[in-house]
Design goal:
This protein has 224 residues and is α/β, with parallel strands linked by helices. Helix content is 38%, strand content 15%. Strand 7, helix 7 and strand 8 form a beta-alpha-beta unit.
Length: 224
């Protein structure tokens, strides 16, 4: 069985293990939606305080009630760590790190680069990686793709051995009507198989998924 079919099988029987890098106002709601759908989630963050709170079943995000987090932790569906070597345990990785604007109005890419370096270090065949952080068109293709191919000793090919997409976060904090699960989710991949896996993955937990033709299109969607 090839890596595409193997991931599809894990989606179908819901044995996929989801990794979420960055547990802020984007990453934590996404992680809890995956857990709500019955998927096992391992969250990653560099802030030990956030990780400790989550593992105690406590929330620090307005749109995620503590009782929701506590339930998922108790059921064994949600846990968090500062140990990025555990990226080797997950099948999917959503990158939800901040990209604050510099004084020159361009995004600070340091958090994305730091996350990608850790992912490249522990990347294993058959992994789906999705960048959600707001950034400029071309980031996924021009910045992340070479890092992941080099990080895997140049032996992994995107679209066959690992899969890479961009899907813009669409969080509206404090909005009681539109939250992570019911805001349409745009996703575009480096290759058609990448896009299809991204579509199938999000469809496990979100109401509407909108596939587009490339990562650059998906990146432009958020800016527009």
């Amino acid at each position: 069985m090839n890596h595409f079919d193997a991931l599809c099988r894990k989606f179908e029987d819901r044995t996929v293990v989801c990794g979420v890098v960055g547990l802020g106002y984007v990453g934590l709601p996404l992680a809890t939606e995956f857990a709500r759908a019955g998927l096992k989630v391992l969250g990653f963050d560099v802030t030990a305080g956030k990780v400790d709170m989550l593992n105690r079943g406590e929330s620090y995000i307005q749109d995620v009630p503590t009782e929701t987090v506590a339930g998922h932790v108790k059921n064994g569906l949600l846990s968090a760590t500062t140990d990025f070597s555990r990226l080797a345990e997950v099948d999917t990785i959503n990158i939800c790190v901040p990209t604050p604007l510099r004084k020159t109005k361009d995004p600070d890419m340091s958090f994305i680069v730091a996350a990608a370096e850790q992912i490249a270090r522990y990347l294993r065949p058959g992994t789906l990686i999705i960048l959600e952080s707001t950034t400029y068109p071309g980031t996924t293709d021009e910045l992340l793709l070479p890092m992941f191919e080099k990080g895997a000793d140049g032996k992994l090919r995107c679209g066959e051995d690992f899969f890479l997409c961009f899907s813009p976060e669409r969080v509206d904090p404090g909005n009681p009507k539109f939250q992570t699960y019911n805001i349409p989710k745009v996703v575009g991949g480096i290759t058609p198989p990448c896009t299809e896996l991204g579509r199938r993955f999000y469809a496990l937990s979100l109401e509407t998924v909108v596939p587009v033709t490339s990562t650059s299109v998906a990146e432009m969607v958020k800016l527009l």
